[in-house]
Amino acid sequence: MGFFDSLVSGISNAISAICSIVLGPVAGALVSDTIQVITKLAPVIKAVVVFVVETIADILGIKNKDEKIDEIGDRALQASEKGIKKTDFETHDEYMNALREFELDPEFSKKLSKEDKEAAGLAVLIDGIDKKLDFSLGSIIPIIAAGYQWMTGERTIAWIEQAKAEGMDMNKVKDYLDGKIGPSQKGEIIDFMVNAERRINPDATWEDIKPNVKEMQINS
């Protein structure tokens, strides 16, 4: 199978290579950094973050609810070997439809590790989310991880939309959680978090979300 034989036998965990195969070198490089962060998380937190990514993809219609990340990744890797590449499609939806129609080779599937399939599936979904929301999901992954008991897919989308509306830098929010923000800037971050929460809970106040934010500060 050409390049894939060496991928499976020699660099099965090379996320950057997998992302490049699935998405092309440019988009692959952008998404690879995000997946690298996810894979380094503690197993329990990683599982939650992956679930949040799946949920966001479901909400945005990027994937169907019954589609699993590892199967999407399996299809993406096999389709790429057959010349079906993300870069050949005008929209992410068209690419996803092509993957759904692609017939999997069970023997090929056996040669790919679960980690390879998951990385490829995450690459496909994160690329679609980034494009759909016009926002880098990677910038909020550390915040989802810190708030893994609170940051649902719906809430994450609310935070992203509020960040876009306010021009909020998510690195600044992460600095707040890490205790690196001075007193003069804390009010701005608190207002942002309250306004984001009000997108899903219109009557929310700082007192309502404060315990969850405090927990995120502990985990950050």
Helix percent band: over 70%
Radius of gyration: 19 Å
Please state the average pLDDT score: 92
Specify the structural class.
mainly alpha
The overall strand count is 0
* Ends distance: 43 Å
In what range is the share of β-strand residues? under 5%
Structure description:
This protein is an all-alpha fold. It is built from 13 helices and no strands. It has helices at residues 3-10, 15-23, 25-39, 43-59, 69-81, 92-101, 106-111, 114-133, 141-146, 153-166, 170-177, 183-197, 206-219. Helix 2 (15-23) packs antiparallel against helix 3 (25-39), helix 3 (25-39) crosses helix 8 and helix 10 (153-166) packs across helix 12. The termini are far apart. The relative contact order is 0.13. Mean pLDDT is 92; it is low at 1-12.
SSE topology sketch:
Blueprint: H1 3-10, H2 15-23, H3 25-39, H4 43-59, H5 69-81, H6 92-101, H7 106-111, H8 114-133, H9 141-146, H10 153-166, H11 170-177, H12 183-197, H13 206-219
Helix pairs in contact: 2-3, 2-8, 3-8, 4-8, 4-10, 5-8, 10-12
Task: Give descriptors for this structure.
220 residues; mainly alpha; elongated; disordered N terminus
Question: Summarize this, please?
Answer:
This protein is mainly alpha-helical and 220 residues long.
